[in-house]
Structures are given as C-alpha cells and as structure tokens.
Design goal:
GO biological process, one term: xenobiotic metabolic process
Order of helices and strands: HEHHHEHEHHHEHHHHH
Number of helices: 13
Largest sheet: 4 strands, parallel
Number of strands: 4
InterPro entries: P-loop_NTPase, Sulfotransferase_dom
Strand order of the largest sheet: 2-1-3-4
CATH architecture of the domain at 5-108 and 147-217: 3-Layer(aba) Sandwich
GO cellular component, one term: cytoplasm
CATH topology of the domain at 5-108 and 147-217: Rossmann fold
Pfam families: Sulfotransfer_1
CATH superfamily of the domain at 5-108 and 147-217: P-loop containing nucleotide triphosphate hydrolases
Protein name: Sulfotransferase
CATH class of the domain at 5-108 and 147-217: Alpha Beta
Length: 255
Amino acid sequence: HLHPPQSLKYYEDFAFRPDDIIIATYPKSGTTWMQEIVPLIVSGGDPASVETLPNWNRVPWLEVYNARNLNLEERPSPRVFATHFHYNMMPPGFFEVKPRVIYVMRNPKDVFTSSFHYYGITSFLVKPGSQSEFLHKFLDGKVMFGSWFDHVKSWLNAEDKQHIMYICYEEMIMDLKDSVARIAQFLEKPLDAEVVEKIADRCLFKNMKQNNMSNYSMVSCEFIDQTKSEFLRKGIAGDWKNQLTVAEVDHSTVQ
C-alpha cells in the first residue's frame, strides 16, 4: 500500500523544477540521514528546518502514497525530495529538467543487515524469514526496489553526471563535517565553517536519534514496531561483521 497506482501516476507526471534537489538511494543506505542534512544546508543551519515537520513530509518520497496530498506544487524553491527509484525508472520530467541529485551509496552487506532488521519491525513489508533466507532474497533482488547491484549500477551509469553528486555512507561516517561542506558546495549554498560544524553536530547519529521528527517515533507501532528494533538502530559502518556468518559473507561476496 506504500506505492498505489495513483501515487506512481502522480510521480510519472510530476513537474520538476531545475532547482529541485533529489536525494536518491537504495533503501537503508542513508536516506534519513540525508533528509536531515540537506534541509539544514538549504536553510543555512536553521534547526526549525528539521524540527517542525516529520522527515517524510519535510523531504517526501515522490513515489509514496502521501506525496500527492502535500501540495508540493506550492512549495517554495528549492524543494527537496527523496526517491528509491532506479535511474532508468525516473519519470520523463526528471530527464527534461535535470534537477540536482545526491546519490548515496552504502556497503551492500550493511544495507542487507539494516534491511533485515527493518523488514522485521514493519507490518507493511513481507516478513524476512531467517537471516539466511532473507540474504538469498536480497541477493536475488526479490525485495522492495529490487537488486542493490542494479540500483547502484543504474545511477553510476547515469547520463548528465554533472548534476549528480555521488557520496558514500562510509565517507559521511569518517568525516561528516567534510561531507556537509561538499554537499553545500554541490548545492551552491556557501556556508561558513561554524555553520558547517553546527550542521554536522546536529546530524551526528546520537543527536538525530533524539529528534522525534526524524526517529519515526511518531509512527504507530501498528506499522513500525520499534519495541523489536529501533528504526535508527546503530548508524555505523561495518555492522554486518556482527551479523553475517562466514558462509553468508562468502556467498554475498561471490555475488
């Protein structure tokens, strides 16, 4: 029910603007993090930009059912959106207008680990089964938004790369300040060092977890049961080492 036909039609016909900003990701690759960072950059570090609206309304997914109820046509520029679509699935208006895109990539083993926990706490996704079963589904692309490999490949092979910024989750973990500064530069939003530092601090995982507009605590446990596992779980690189067996690591590496 996340992506009914009416929502996909809305996205297909969506009127993009050249100064729109699209955060494109494969699920569980750092979308929520970027939904915090980009509004703060665009607003020059104003905390209200991430404290007044839940992140799914602040930076809505254009393919999700609630997007068409948000009067996005009336939002002032620059508008910030998210999408989990593969590059070749993007609607015609996207290719005509060429808005800016920030594409976030993450180690697929960590994407798998995060996805496994996420599928286990949501009521609207197929139950993951055992870790081993879910790994086979994940590697075969039998999960929401298909194959991680196809998704990343589609965006890395995009045309008109000058309007796309590629960034890795792991880079952001290593040096968030530098990542914020580079994103600001890409968005042509010059920020002084003090504001960059303030944004980076605000977007540290431990601080984001405290923001009720970003930690999904406002979502009914009927849909996301955070008593089983938190939505914002660890926010680290390399957690797959705590989760995957040697055989599973070997299997995923061969893929």
